[in-house]
Design brief:
InterPro entries: Aminoacid_DH-like_N_sf, NAD(P)-bd_dom_sf, THF_DH/CycHdrlase, THF_DH/CycHdrlase_cat_dom, THF_DH/CycHdrlase_CS, THF_DH/CycHdrlase_NAD-bd_dom. The chain has nine helices and eleven strands. The protein is α/β, with parallel strands linked by helices and 284 residues long. It binds 5,10-Methenyltetrahydrofolate.
Length: 284
């Protein structure tokens, strides 16, 4: 068997087309503010990608590129100013933050109605209790991708490998809400392959290059690769690889590529969330 590829680009384009449509119904438009500290190359490149896509969709976009040593108080003051600015629709603080900044305090400072990452405790709680307004971008993008390719979720056995706050845990909440039977495994799960082989849909979100091999996958399963690892191979420039080994293609029924799979969905969902936030401000 060779797995059907589930590329992110067409699904992301469909999501962006819907965002554009909803944006057209907003006379004031929408404005995304991204705050980035320091010059970590991955963060610089992700933020540039978000900014460029936002403009393509017709959103206003401002990147606040601050020095790595920015005091937490200055960051909190900027967030307070954007919270109070009625023209600022969405606020995103790029992670990871430098060690001298308390990330959870910073995320809690963002107005939950402008929290386009969906990381504020109010939005996290809302996600688990069925009152989602702004869903976290990567898990919501993953579900949009499954929907785009008409992969059924209800009644299926979903296994997530990874328990992060930004992917594994919120993805579990969203799959439960869609009537999947959900198992969350992780790097310390004994006999991981026995757990993952039960999956109809397997989500790899641990952040370890090529952790998931054919031995982890039941024949015909759908495999969603959420990993974005900068992989260094001797004598080659570093490249982006997923959590799923390429040999899984010969076992899975369908597989998302890396790059070009979940990544573009994350960005598209962020812009959709920004439009959603602007709608909430226009019609509270
Ligand atoms: N507050 C916050 N929110 C985030 O959503 C957030 C974050 N911090 N910190 C870092 C992670 C990572 N992340 C990605 C977004 C897009 C791609 C993406 O578009 N990747 C492309 C390739 C990009 C490339 O080649 O570098 C792809 O997979 O095809 C990947 C990763 C968002 N994150």
């Amino acid at each position: 068997m060779t797995a059907r590829a589930l590329p992110g680009a067409p699904a992301a384009e469909a999501l962006l087309a819907r965002a554009r449509e909803r944006l057209a119904a907003l006379p004031g438009g929408a404005h995304l503010h991204v705050i980035r500290l320091g010059d970590d190359p991955a963060s610089v490149s992700y933020v540039r990608l978000k900014d460029r896509k936002a403009r393509e969709v017709g959103l206003r976009s401002t990147v606040h590129a601050l020095p790595d040593a920015t005091p937490e108080a200055d960051l909190l003051a900027l967030i307070a100013r954007l919270n109070a600015d009625p023209a600022a629709s969405g606020i995103l603080v790029q992670l990871p933050l430098p060690a001298h900044v308390n990330a959870s305090r910073v995320l809690r400072a963002i107005d939950p109605d402008k929290d386009v990452d969906g990381f504020h405790p109010v939005n996290v709680g809302g996600l688990w209790s069925g009152e989602t307004r702004l869903p976290p971008c990567t898990p919501a993008g993953v579900l949009a991708l499954l929907d785009h390719y008409a992969v059924p979720v209800a009644g299926k056995r979903a296994v997530i490998v990874g328990r992060s706050n930004i992917v594994g845990k919120p993805l579990a909440a969203m799959l439960l809400a869609r009537d999947a039977t959900v198992t969350v495994a992780h790097s310390r799960t004994p006999d991981l392959s026995a757990v993952t082989r039960a999956a109809d849909i397997l989500f790899a979100a641990v952040g370890r290059a090529h952790l998931i091999t054919p031995a982890h996958v039941r024949s015909g399963a759908t495999v969603i690769d959420v990993g974005v690892n900068r992989h260094a191979v001797a004598d080659e420039p570093p490249r982006l690889v997923g959590d799923v080994h390429p040999d899984v293609r010969s076992v899975a029924g369908a597989l998302t590529p890396v790059p070009g799979g979940v990544g573009p969905m994350t960005v598209a969902q962020l812009l959709m969330n920004t439009v959603t936030a602007a709608h909430h401000h226009a019609h509270p």
